[in-house]
Amino acid sequence: MATIIPEHEFERVTGEPDFPAYLAGHIKDGKLEYFCNNSVHYVLRGVHVKLDILWNWEAAPGTGDTYTAVFRGTRARVEIRQGAEQKYVPELYVVPNSDSTRAEVLTALQHKIDALQGEHPGVGFKELGGQAAITIPAATELATRHTSRRSRISSSSI
Questions:
Q1: Deepest in the core among 64, 118, 151, 157, taking most CB within 10 A?
Q2: Is the pLDDT reported for residue 154 higher than 70?
């Protein structure tokens, strides 16, 4: 399946008034057919992996980029969700696979969160209906710490 890009949108992004000649084989009815969507299924060390990739040219008006990733483990899965419910901002969740593993998973998660406090103070989680939503300090705080750490690394490298 292709993502269709009209010539005026191509120009808006690239600054080029026309499609380049090397794309001629991908132009149909004056629009670029960009074959960037795919689905991949494979097994890695006995673990089934499935990737579905769908790239739309632009999000619908009033929305934003969407993204979902699910990493399945034996006792829980880790999910990254970015959609309307998250106001198009990526959020991280840990979801126990069953009620019987819930306490074990949340205890292990709390230990991991505690261990992260030295490097990432303020990271935590809150329980929401049987799952844990990872709480991350405001992006500006993280960016400030990241910039500060980058400065320390740069200074020590000189």
A1: 64
A2: no
Q: For residue 132, with 0-12 CB atoms within 10 Å meaning exposed, 13-18 middle and 19 or more buried, which class applies? A: buried
Residue in the block written with tokens 């500006």: 140
Q: What is the pLDDT of residue 141?
A: 54
Question: In b/e form, how buried is each residue of 71-107, taking b as 16+ CB within 10 angstroms?
Answer: eeeeebbebebbbeebeeeebbbbbbeeeeebeebbe
Task: Map residue 82 onto helix, strand or coil.
Answer: strand
Q: Two tokens at 95? A: 């979801």
For residue 121, how many other CB atoms are within 10 A of its CB? 11
pLDDT at 51: 84
Show Cβ contacts of residue 15 under 8 Å, excluding neighbours closer than 6 positions.
none
What ranges do the domains of the chain cover?
1-58, 65-158
Confidence band, pLDDT 50/70/90 cuts, at residue 139: low
Cα distances (Å, whole numbers) of residue 67 to 40, 43, 49, 70, 139: 17, 23, 17, 10, 19
Neighbours of 10 (CB within 10 A): 21
Q: Which residues contact 97 (CB under 8 A, 6 or more apart)?
A: 73, 74, 75, 76, 77
